[in-house]
Amino acid sequence: MNINELTESELKNWLYDSAKLWLAHDGLWFQSVEKKHGIDEAIEHDKNAWTIFSPLEAKRIKARLNLSDNSGLEGLKKALNHRLYAILNKQEIVEETETSFVFRMNDCRVQSARKRKGLDDFPCKPVGIIEYSTFATEIDPRINTECICCPPDAHPESHYCAWKFTLCND
């Protein structure tokens, strides 16, 4: 059976499984570099990969959703819900104003797995800064990204990381 013959339910399962496999691959290559060269080197390579991947993902989502180059915060909200891992994680938008909103990752599949294994949070902040800022500016170059908290920062039980996106009209 090919993908064009799948039912809606089968397509959803296929997408969910594909997202899990993509995330597993992301983690496996990271662990391979970490094992051979240490965590600092692995994080550096991860930053390099996200510098390229995040805007690429944003560009494709923009095209799929037919978002304009200056789609503002509304465009970013839509795009965040269409990221590949959005199907796996629990995320929310809070503290909305006319010029900003806060995006929170309430349940991150990577961090939750580490927690279940009794491990410390993965220190993803250096990667997250690149990931979220390049994603947001690809959606709309007027958007500024600020990290509120992200491991290794302390964070409340309600979420692992939080990012504030502000539309700057300069």
Topology overview:
Elements: H1 8-37, H2 39-65, H3 72-80, E1 90-94, E2 100-107, H4 109-116, H5 125-139, E3 143-149, E4 161-167
Antiparallel strand pairs: 1-2, 2-4, 3-4
Helix pairs in contact: 1-2, 2-5
Would you kindly provide a written description of the structure presented here, covering whatever features stand out?
The protein has five helices and four strands, in the order H-H-H-E-E-H-H-E-E. The protein is an alpha+beta fold and 170 residues long. Helix 1 (8-37) packs antiparallel against helix 2 and helix 2 (39-65) packs parallel to helix 5. The relative contact order is 0.14. Strand 1 (90-94) and strand 2 form a beta hairpin. The protein has a domain at 53-167: Muramoyl-pentapeptide Carboxypeptidase, domain 2, CATH 3.30.1380. The longest helix has 30 residues, at 8-37. It has helices at 8-37, 39-65, 72-80, 109-116, 125-139, and strands at 90-94, 100-107, 143-149, 161-167. A four-stranded antiparallel β-sheet has the order 1-2-4-3.
CATH class of the domain at 53-167: Alpha Beta
Mean pLDDT: 94
Rough outline: globular
Which fold name fills CATH's third level, the topology of the domain at 53-167?
Muramoyl-pentapeptide Carboxypeptidase, domain 2
Per DSSP E runs of 2 or more residues, the count of β-strands stands at: 4
For the biggest β-sheet, the strand order reads 1-2-4-3
Q: Quote the beta fraction.
A: 15-25%
Task: Please work out how many helical segments DSSP would assign.
Answer: 5
Q: Determine the oligomeric state from the structure.
A: single chain
Largest sheet: 4 strands, antiparallel
Give the % helix. 40-55%
Low-confidence stretches: none
